[in-house]
Amino acid sequence: MPNFCAAPNCTRKSTQSDLAFFRFPRDPERCRIWVENCRRADLEAKTADQLNKHYRLCAKHFDPAMVCKTSPYRTVLKDTAIPTIFDLTSHLKNPYTRHRKQIKELTDEDIQRIKERRLASAEQTIKKEDLSNMVDNEPQLSADEKEYRDYLRSLFEILFMLAKQAIPLTTGRVSEEELKSNNFQAVIDYCMNAGDEALRKRFEVTAVNSEYLSTAQLNQLLDVCENTVREEMLMEVRESRFYSLVTGDLVEFANSKHLPVFLRFVNQQNVLREEFVDFLPFVDGDEAALVESLEALLVDRWGLSMEDCRGQAHKATGTSTTKMKAVAVLLMEKYPLALHMPCSHLALNIHLANNLPFPNVQIVMENLRRITSFFKTPHTQDELEKAISIQFQKNEEKRNALKKMCSSGWTEQHNIFDVLLDILPSLLLCMDSIRDNAGRKFSSSVTADAYSIGESIADFEVIVTIVILKNVLTFTRAFGRNLQGETLDVFSAASSLTAVLYSLNEVNDNIDVYHEFWYSEAVSLAALMQIPVSVPRLFLRKQRAADLGEIQAETYFKEYVTVPVIRGIMQEVEDMFCDNNLRALKCLSLVPAVMGHMKFNTTEENFAEVYSGDLPNPDTLPAELHCWRIKWKHRGKEVRLPTTIHETLQLPDVKFFPNVDAFLKVLSTMPVLKVEKGTGDAATERLQAYVGSVPAKHLNKSLAMLHINTHVKHDLDVMVDKYCRLYPEDDPEAEAEDVGDDVIVTKVI
């Protein structure tokens, strides 16, 4: 779409000229001066952000000395540039012509104010020139200082190379002598042998057997790298203003647990990003303390505002799930717009099961995580397929279907419990076969894991729990699949929640009938696997100690498994999709494809009240939404309706609907919505890959940060400047936070 010049009596546009066009500045004071000089009265009421987004001035209105051509394809303004060249009289020659860009008539007060501003500007220019002369007169870097900066630059390059390739700083050796030879020093040696003069000169002036680079210095280098890369991402978050907070599963390194923290936001190119920004130390104990730590990290360290947080999602497992649920509740009490939603990276049924605080359910979920890890070992998948072939040798169709499902990440799918129940006999047969290890293909650790998993799943309580989870979560499976689908699917899911809750309530009201069928299914499966029906030993012991008599197995599993699971799932669904969450999801009807599906009979304004404070002009929202519907309802036949928020935000004319534009950007940050492939969805996957490939004792917080964010642009010279400013070479070594293994690079001849 062409850019038009906002200056009065100027009709230039970008399609008719090679001239550069410049946005109004974001800085409110500079922007006000531009508007004053333009003499456009209609622009005075607009904010700096609105002017920056929607208005341009062509290069003809600037002094040529203010315009810099940095390349044949790029022209920029100096930071102090102000437009001063305008035609404010030519319209007087034809007074009957209607002019869209009305010129403001200056009053005496306006003239006096402009004179005062110009005088102040002239004084400021003189001061800047004096300061510039002082800078020019400063001494240049000495040869030693240049060599030192080149040396630092080489070290930063090496650290980024190690991070990109997920190479730990040290190997598995821990003796004092062997620490003299580690991955970091090996790369330094290689670079020196390859001709890096900066490293070699530094090496030559270092005394024999002395520290070439101490652990404290290395930690300082890593700290500068990490903070510089993080600041690049945080600048984008601050520019976009609104964001959502996403946390991952706990990662253990340096003898403590850490909570991975991600931020989801829409950048200046209107692309949804989800970026990993840091690890937060996770201390077991008070949830309020963890909330305070999160707030301190986001607000005090990163300069963000919790008032701008529009969503939160916490991907937790095991005992941490209860704590993270409490954290979400506390955050929503303080910041009601930080809506707690499921994470788009995790199937809803897995999320619901993870959040159930019952020991038998947590045992099943822990077994699933162990099974996922176990079948990454070579040859184990082959054994599972053999067991499936044996178990279903008379049913070729079922056999082939199960083999296909088990080879495609079934432990992350929405139908995880259906597949688990189908392959459970084969899974137990596979574990027994690997434990026997007849062909000696597996190590002792693999056979030990197979024995442990086999013993765990060969338990009647586990079988009953799996059967109950499979049957209860059948009612939420389609709902969860839609939540991870296209925008229209998510909108449909929000509309179908009432039906999901109705089905779950119907099961709860008729729990005796449903439990009888489900218990019978569990007994049949246990008989097939030759597992006896029994009440858990621990419960029986407590019953006998209290002299309460015996309890029937069916009654026990109804009271302690079926009823808690069905009620727990109902509560989780109601909490996760409260009224505010549903209102937000129903606002997805702003997307044209959803609008078309609803025959353009949508009422977003009824649900938009919660976000009225986020809109530039909330009073005009109803009229703007009406125009938005009319635009798409009466489109040409060849015009295709955008199907996602991302596609809609990329439209060139969405900027003419500022409320819709802002609304879509806020909605886009909701954690439940999937991130478009290739536009920032890989941070979680890269973290999992790094944690999986590097041994826990060699995990390094800073290297993990750099590895996950290798796509973020970084300037080595900026890092060198920052390091020299924070840690001058002449100063004694400052204490640095220990972020990993002790690494001492020593000169040895």
Task: Characterise this structure.
The protein is built from 29 helices and twelve strands. The chain has 749 residues and is an alpha+beta fold. Strands 6, 7, 8, 9, 10 and 11 form a six-stranded mixed beta sheet that branches. The protein has a two-stranded antiparallel ribbon with strand order 1-2. Helix 16 crosses helix 19. It is globular.
Task: Write a brief structural summary.
The protein has 749 residues and is an alpha+beta fold. The protein has 29 helices and 12 strands. It comes from Xiphophorus maculatus.
Task: Provide key terms for this protein.
8% strand; 749 residues; 6-stranded mixed beta sheet; two-stranded antiparallel ribbon; metal-binding; IFN-induced_PKR_regulator; alpha+beta; 4 domains
Secondary structure elements and their pairing?
Elements: E1 21-23, H1 28-38, H2 48-54, E2 56-58, E3 67-71, E4 74-77, H3 108-136, H4 143-164, H5 183-193, H6 197-204, E5 211-213, H7 215-240, E6 243-247, E7 251-253, E8 256-266, E9 272-282, H8 287-301, E10 309-314, H9 320-334, E11 339-340, H10 348-355, H11 359-374, H12 380-391, H13 396-406, H14 416-436, H15 444-457, H16 460-472, H17 474-483, H18 487-509, H19 511-528, H20 537-545, H21 553-576, H22 579-586, H23 592-597, H24 621-633, H25 645-649, H26 658-668, H27 683-693, H28 701-708, H29 716-726, E12 745-746
Parallel strand pairs: 6-10, 10-11
Antiparallel strand pairs: 1-2, 3-4, 5-12, 6-8, 7-8, 8-9
Helix pairs in contact: 4-6, 4-28, 4-29, 5-6, 7-28, 7-29, 8-9, 11-15, 11-16, 12-13, 12-14, 14-15, 14-16, 16-19, 16-21, 17-18, 18-21, 19-21
Domain THAP-type: 1-86
GO molecular function, one term: DNA binding
Protein name: THAP domain containing 12b
